[in-house]
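Hi support team,

I submitted a single chain yesterday and got back a structure, but I'm not sure I'm reading the token output correctly. Could someone confirm the output below corresponds to the sequence I sent? I've pasted both exactly as they appear in my results page.

Thanks,
R.
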Amino acid sequence: MDQNERYAHIPDYTLVIPAYNEEERIGAVLEELKSSCGRFIFIFDGDDRTPDIILEFSRRNPGIPIHVERHNKRRGKGKAILEGFRIANTPIVGFMDADGSTSIREMERLVSEINAHDAAIGSRWLPGSRLPRKQGFSRRIQSRIFNLIIRILFGLSFKDTQCGAKVFKKSAIDAVIGDMVSSGFEFDVELLWRLSRKGYAIWEVPIKWTNMSDSRVTRSDAGGMLAGLLKLRIHG
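Hi R., thanks for writing in. Yes, this is the structure output for that exact sequence:
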């Protein structure tokens, strides 16, 4: 299948990419955009040269639809993604990590496979997933424990709620965006929970995912995520 034929099978989509101090890694992600057919919204709330690198790339590649929002204060993953969703105006929207752990091609595979579902989310823990570079053993154990907590608190049966590769029909996002309250890394769980409560069909898909060093999730973030989830479950 040549590139034009591949594009014909991919619906019009926008990917939101939150970028916090990714100047060392964003270049590789930008290069992938040259062989993509989507629109891209970068939300930056750090203090390095990431937005300058993106804007320079956009200037040199005017045929790639790129939008950049820059903030001086770190606001959290959830707020960044919601801002991007509000800007997007395509039938399909999604988000991915700025570190390149999931490729643009994998994201386009999710977009093309939504079909009758309202969302397609990447999973690192389903049979068929490919992990060329895995997380460390302790991180994998933490992920499994976290997923167990999510099942108990929210009744979600997904194997992996935290993989940063998710796409949705914009109509489904529009139906829940006004209810969203999470600003941090617990955002993924809340979004899936609210969509599930409204009866939207979410398809979990095995994905190729590469663990990147220098994770942006700190112990403080993890504690804040758990506190946010408990608050959401009590008051949500």
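A quick pointer for reading it: The domain at 3-235 is CATH 3.90.550.10 (Spore Coat Polysaccharide Biosynthesis Protein SpsA; Chain A). Let us know if anything else looks off.

Best,
Support desk
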